[in-house]
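REQUEST FORM: STRUCTURE PREDICTION
Request ID: SP-0412
Submitted by: Lab K.M.
Chain count: 1
Length (residues): 240
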Amino acid sequence: MSLIQPPSKITQFANFTRSSAGLEKTLRLIQAVAQIVADVAADRTVASQWGLAKGQLALSRRFFRFFNFIDCFDRVAGLLGGRVGGNEGALTLLIELARWSCLGGYFLLEDLTILHAMKIHPPKWTWNVTVLEEAYKLWFYALSLSLVGAVWSLLFTVSGPSTGPGKGGKKGGKKNGKVAGTSNQALRRTLLKRIVVDGCDLLIPGVFLGWLVVGDAVVGAAMVVSTLLAGRDVWGRVNS
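STATUS: Completed
RESULT:
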């Protein structure tokens, strides 16, 4: 019996919020709730206050992802150089290249409008609207490509466990088949979670661009779902 006591939930939450990823997810969850309340509140004053809170939280989160374009373009360089994704097929590789290129372009273009969001640039400099629209188009494309890639991998890449006889004997073949089956199950869960998260997040740029027509409360609810699912992975990572 282990004498080491697991950390309490309060300690785990503190670890979660001390990490940049965990704090960003916490702010995102609060922003999603604020967006829902601002949309469904009957009182205009209450709706305005929650809407202002949503805007301030959204601005705060932009600083957490300000340099994310570096990671995205490094991922593209890794795919081109063979440092990552060495076992991917040609189609999956192309999807991943396009996905990470679009995502990096989104972060980079969004960064160009940060001074407008902070009300530092004068209002007459309206080019930020066009830049932000192009940024959200790239974000929409990146999420769409991520969904396509995940569905493709789920249907054609993830195979069942190999249970055929191996060179290591019957016992070794069963053991290898069990390991392969466990690995495939984990990959399936990861892909399914990616589909749900990206599918929910797709509403954000889609509504912003007018390509999807849903209410702000629906978008906020989708943000809650995607944030909880993505935040669970961060929680496990910082508390492992």
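NOTES: Residues 65-141 form one domain.
Reviewed by: T.R.
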